[in-house]
Write a structure and sequence with these properties.
It is a single chain. The chain has helices at residues 3-18, 23-31, 39-42, 45-67. The model has no long low-confidence stretch (mean pLDDT 92). By secondary structure, the chain is mostly helical. The protein starts with a helix and ends with a helix. 76% of the residues lie in helices and 0% in strands. The chain is elongated, with a radius of gyration of 15 Å. It has four helices and no strands.
Length: 68
């Protein structure tokens, strides 16, 4: 419940800081038409998935060590 929203926030904030995602691109997702409007967000999804899997993996690993 925490890993997915946290991953989205971290990846999107990092992309905005690096200039890979602008405010106008995010607005276009909601206001434009056609499938091309989703490309700026879709290209970041593999990074969200990787970060989510990493956070979940190390959280489970940390919890198992804590319980032991």
């Amino acid at each position: 419940m925490i890993a997915l929203p946290l991953s989205f926030a971290l990846v999107f904030l990092f992309a905005r800081a690096m200039g890979a995602l602008s405010t106008s691109q995010l607005e276009d997702v909601f206001f434009e038409t056609g499938w091309d409007r989703f490309w700026p967000v879709a290209r970041l999804l593999p990074f969200v998935a990787l970060l989510t899997a990493t956070l979940v993996h190390f959280s489970v690993l940390g919890l198992s060590h804590w319980r032991a």
